């Protein structure tokens, strides 16, 4: 494959990732052939590493070299780090509506997901990793996925790895009991676990009586719609 006048290294990086995963389950001459192919592919990526100027290629190659335990995995991390762009938290403008979907959103999510995998593997959990997770969380759609299939798969892999390293499973596996102070018989248990019910919407009707004026009237009307979990 060719893109922008040079051979596309991303395909080779994907092949390296696959070979690293399947190699432990192979035996005999097939294992030997895959080992040779993996070594050749890693050598190719190492030669092309410092000539890469596309963030997607750099992130994917860095992840492949890191997962394959290449001698240049540290160099790949440093080069990837020079390409990172940090924005946000620098505007006081009260945006009322979220930004519209952009053409390259899926590309950005996939690239950022590979970068997150590299940072987690090399540096563990830190500020950069947390900021990347926040970005991926913002990009998620209402059904829990992201923009396309490919970037959703990459993001889910990165987020699962982050959740495992940060021990978020123990934090998010919980039960919440809702009680009504004015009605002792009203009790609802809500389970927040690790099941595939992300898109489920539960609502509970709550009677509300209040007397407000000015801005509080709008808040009251919003609350009358019920509580959602």
TrEMBL record:
GO cellular component terms? extracellular space
Q: Which Pfam families match?
A: TED_complement
Q: Please name the SUPFAM superfamilies in this protein's record.
A: Terpenoid cyclases/Protein prenyltransferases (SSF48239)
InterPro entries under this entry?
A2M/Complement_sys, Alpha-macroglobulin_TED, Terpenoid_cyclase/PrenylTrfase
Alpha-macroglobulin-like TED domain: from which residue to which, for each copy?
7-162
PANTHER family membership: CD109 ANTIGEN (PTHR11412:SF146), MACROGLOBULIN / COMPLEMENT (PTHR11412)
User: Which protein, by its recorded name, is this?
Assistant: CD109 antigen-like 8
* Species in which this protein is naturally found: Homarus americanus
């Amino acid at each position: 494959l060719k893109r922008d006048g040079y051979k596309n290294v991303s395909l080779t990086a994907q092949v390296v990732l696959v070979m690293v995963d399947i190699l432990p389950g192979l035996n005999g001459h097939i294992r030997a052939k895959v080992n040779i192919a993996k070594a050749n592919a890693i050598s190719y990526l190492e030669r092309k590493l410092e000539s890469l100027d596309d963030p997607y290629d750099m992130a994917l190659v860095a992840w492949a070299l890191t997962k394959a335990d290449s001698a240049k995995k540290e160099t790949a991390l440093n080069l990837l780090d020079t390409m990172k762009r940090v924005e946000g938290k620098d505007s006081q403008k009260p945006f009322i509506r979220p930004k519209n979907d952009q053409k390259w959103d899926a590309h950005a999510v996939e690239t950022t997901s590979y970068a997150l995998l590299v940072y987690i593997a090399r540096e563990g959990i830190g500020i950069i990793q947390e900021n990347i997770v926040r970005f991926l969380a913002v990009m998620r759609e209402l059904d829990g996925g992201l923009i396309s299939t490919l970037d959703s798969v990459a993001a889910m892999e990165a987020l699962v790895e982050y959740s495992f390293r940060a021990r978020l499973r123990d934090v998010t596996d919980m039960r919440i009991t809702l009680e009504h102070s004015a009605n002792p018989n009203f009790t609802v248990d809500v389970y927040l676990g690790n099941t595939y019910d992300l898109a489920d919407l539960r609502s509970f009707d709550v009677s509300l009586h209040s007397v407000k004026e000015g801005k509080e009237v709008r808040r009251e009307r919003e609350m009358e719609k019920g509580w959602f979990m």
